[in-house]
Amino acid sequence: MEPSNTTVCIICRKEVSGTLVKDDVVIETIRKIKKKLGMAKNNKLVVCQGCLEEWSSKRKKYEKTLTQNIVIGIGIVVLLIGLPLILAGKLMLEQVIPGSGLGLIIILSTVMWHVPDIEQRPGEKTVTKPKKIKT
Ligand SMILES: [Zn+2]
C-alpha cells in the first residue's frame, strides 16, 4: 500500500497537520499487526496544535504509569520467584510461570494506554516541515 500523506491527530482523531509522532516499538508493532489484518491506513500520526496541551498531560501520566507498572511488574516477579527461592532454597516452577505471566500482563496493559512521544515537545522550536521517515 502506498503511504498516504494524510496526517491524523492522535488526540482528536481529526485529519489535521501538527507535530509528527515519533515511531517507537509500540507504534511499529501496532502498525505491523494492522498491516497483517489489512487495517493499515498508513496515515501519519501527529499531535495538532490544539491538542498539544492535552497530549502533554496524557504523556506525563503515561510515563508515570509506565514506570510504576514496570516497578510493580518486576516487584511481583521478584516476590513470587525470589521469595520462595530464598525461603525454600529452590525454584518453584508453579510460581515462576504465573509470576512472570502476571508481571508481563501488568507491563503490557500499560501499552494499551500508550501515548507516543512526539518529534518536538511544546516549548521547543515549532515544526515547519515534517521529517522524512527513514527506510
Ligand atoms: Zn488534535
Which labels suit this protein?
135 residues; mainly alpha; three-stranded mixed beta sheet; 3 helices; binds zinc ion
Structural account:
With 135 residues, this protein is mostly helical. It has one domain. 52% of the residues lie in helices and 8% in strands. The chain contains three helices and three strands, in the order ββαβαα. The chain has a three-stranded mixed sheet with strand order 1-3-2, with no helix packed on it. The model has no long low-confidence stretch (mean pLDDT 82). The structure holds zinc ion. The site of zinc ion has 8 residues, from loops.
Write a short abstract of this structure.
The protein is mainly alpha-helical. It has one domain.
Number of strands: 3
Strand arrangement across the biggest beta sheet: 1-3-2
Largest sheet: 3 strands, mixed
* Beta-strand residue fraction: 5-15%
The span between the termini is: 15 Å
The gyration radius over C-alpha positions equals 20 Å
Integer average pLDDT: 82
Number of helices: 3
What structural class is derived from the secondary structure elements?
mainly alpha
Q: What count of structural domains?
A: 1
Fraction in helix: 40-55%
SSE string, helices as H and strands as E: EEHEHH
